[in-house]
Write a structure and sequence with these properties.
Blueprint (H helix, E strand, L loop, with lengths): L1 E5 L3 H12 L3 E5 L3 H8 L10 H10 L3 E4 L2 H5 L4 E4 L15 H13 L4 E5 L7 H12 L5 E5 L9 H6 L4 E5 L2 H10 L10 E4 L1 H32 L3 H9 L20 H14 L5 H24 L8 E5 L15 H10 L3 E5 L3 H5 L7 E2 L3 H5 L4 E4 L11 H6 L5 E4 L6 H6 L3 E3 L10
Parallel strand pairs: 1-2, 1-4, 2-3, 4-5, 5-6, 7-8, 9-10, 9-12, 10-11, 12-13, 13-14
Antiparallel strand pairs: 6-7
This protein binds uridine-5'-diphosphate-glucuronic acid.
Length: 439
């Protein structure tokens, strides 16, 4: 099949490359010349493990191309996917649909009869109908099929998520639209992946409801972590015990410094906004948003408390600044709140991150960077893990401590245990466990 993807951002690129690996002919249309130049050389403008190798394989096989020419790309295409950004609109929390509607107009100008226009960008309920209206107004009488196909990719494991999804959701309005999408995803039949066909609105809501639910799950366990810190109990064991109940499930129950990234913060805001607009207030989601914002601030307080109530003049090694491991994405990362708060409180910080340096150098203008955890911790009073990169999971604690002025270890991701930290003679401050004096 021939597939056109408009937008070679995160979602467009992963989808395009994976579709080409399914054996389809894919053309990715991108306006950004810098990105295009990189992609033409087989380079990936984002950090996603395995994507470069998969791209190289499919370029060699002649199944994927990159261009800025939508009109030519559309010739003979079975489906065109809209995969442009939907950032949070400044001021009101709503998803900004400027690029989506602009793309719909450009598709209308260049499309042929029978094409399926699929939205992969995360868009609020009602958007696909608006896209259909824009296209029919511009090209009255030309037959096309609207479809919604939300993505459920996690950064850092996007290829696996695309190739082995729990489900594929397709919102369709016509038998032809459904048939084309089912053919596109046919390679997943081998894995017996369920394909859920719904109407447009349902598919749009599934995406937001899924992300908001996961954000709620995380926020819930984060509050239980606070409770454990006050009354005793170990949040990891609590999560495990809860998760053994199949109705709950153990995933997305890791307590931490609050969720970040390009999706949960943006999508929860947009869902809350839609609810307010149509008088179906999403009070749980609104509370989750507030609790998560407050949590990021509270994490700076936790570090300050661990340092004896003040970080003035203290040197702190920060391990991990990206919103999660295996990505260079800094969007809404907890570090963007925690680091400035600590700086405000008078701390001096040395940052270390396997990927975040390039992206965030300008975001933390006052801090210095180290190449590894040991260099970051040299002469430091405390080490704080904000992001659980593998590089920080197996540290030689004796070596780390040897270079430090004071042995305080704040573990906002619970990657170590009291036992290990006691053995290394660190004062250890994990998440969701009653503070006890390390020996
Ligand atoms: C999320 C969803 O997981 C994907 O299914 C969805 O497709 C994607 O958003 C999207 O809408 O595009 P992503 O933002 O890449 O994916 O990352 P997650 O792995 O979901 O993590 C989000 C945040 O939650 C991170 O800050 C992470 O550290 C935090 N988190 C996650 C926790 O604090 N605890 C957990 O148990 C899980």
């Amino acid at each position: 099949m021939k597939i056109v993807i408009v937008g070679a951002g995160y979602v467009g690129l992963v989808s395009g490359i994976c579709f080409s690996d399914f054996g389809h002919n894919v053309v990715c249309v991108e306006k950004d010349e810098r990105k295009l130049a990189m992609l033409a050389k087989g380079e990936i403008p984002i950090y996603e493990p395995g994507l470069d190798a998969l791209l190289a394989k499919n370029i060699t096989a002649g199944r994927i191309k990159f261009t800025n020419d939508l009109a030519t790309s559309m010739e003979g295409a079975d489906a065109v996917f809209i995969a442009v950004g939907t950032p949070t609109r400044r001021g009101d929390g709503h998803a900004d649909l400027t690029y989506v509607f602009q793309t719909a107009k450009e598709i209308a100008d260049t499309m042929h009869s029978g094409i399926v226009v699929v939205t992969k960008s995360t868009v609020p309920v009602g958007t696909n109908r608006e896209i259909a209206r824009i296209i029919s107004k511009q090209r009255p009488g030309v037959e096309f099929h609207t479809a919604s196909n939300p993505e459920f990719l996690r950064e850092g494991s996007a290829i696996e998520d695309f190739m082995r999804p729990d489900r594929v959701v397709i919102g369709v309005e016509s038998a032809h639209g459904e048939e084309v999408l089912r053919r596109i995803y046919r390679p997943l039949n081998l894995r017996e992946t369920p394909i859920l066909a719904t109407d447009l609105e349902t598919a749009e809501i599934i995406k937001y409801a899924a992300n908001a639910f996961l954000a709620t799950k995380i926020t819930f366990i984060n509050e239980i972590a606070d409770l454990c810190e006050k009354v005793g109990g170990d949040v990891q064991q609590v999560a495990k015990g809860m998760g053994m109940d199949k109705r709950i499930g153990g995933r997305f129950l890791h307590a931490g410094p609050g969720y970040g990234g390009s999706c949960f913060p943006k999508d929860t805001l947009a869902l809350a906004r839609t609810g307010q607009e149509v008088d179906a207030v999403q009070s749980i989601v609104e509370t989750v948003i507030r609790a998560n914002n407050e949590r990021k601030l509270a994490m700076a307080g936790k570090v300050i408390a661990a340092c004896g109530g003040s970080v003035k003049g203290k040197r702190i090694a920060i391990l991990g600044v990206t919103f999660k491991p295996d990505t260079d994405d800094m969007r809404d990362a907890p570090s963007l709140v925690i680091i400035p708060q600590l700086r405000k409180a008078g701390a001096e910080m040395v940052l270390c991150d396997p990927q975040g340096h390039m992206e965030s150098a300008t975001m933390f203008p006052d801090e210095t960077w180290a190449d590894n955890a040991y260099d970051a911790a040299k002469n430091a009073d405390a080490v704080v893990v904000i992001t659980e990169w593998n590089a920080f999971r197996g540290l030689d604690l004796a070596r780390l401590k040897a270079g430090m002025s004071e042995a305080i270890f704040v573990d906002l991701r619970n990657i170590y245990t009291y036992r290990e930290m006691d053995a290394a003679d660190f004062q250890y401050f994990p998440i969701g466990k009653r503070q006890r004096k390390s020996t």
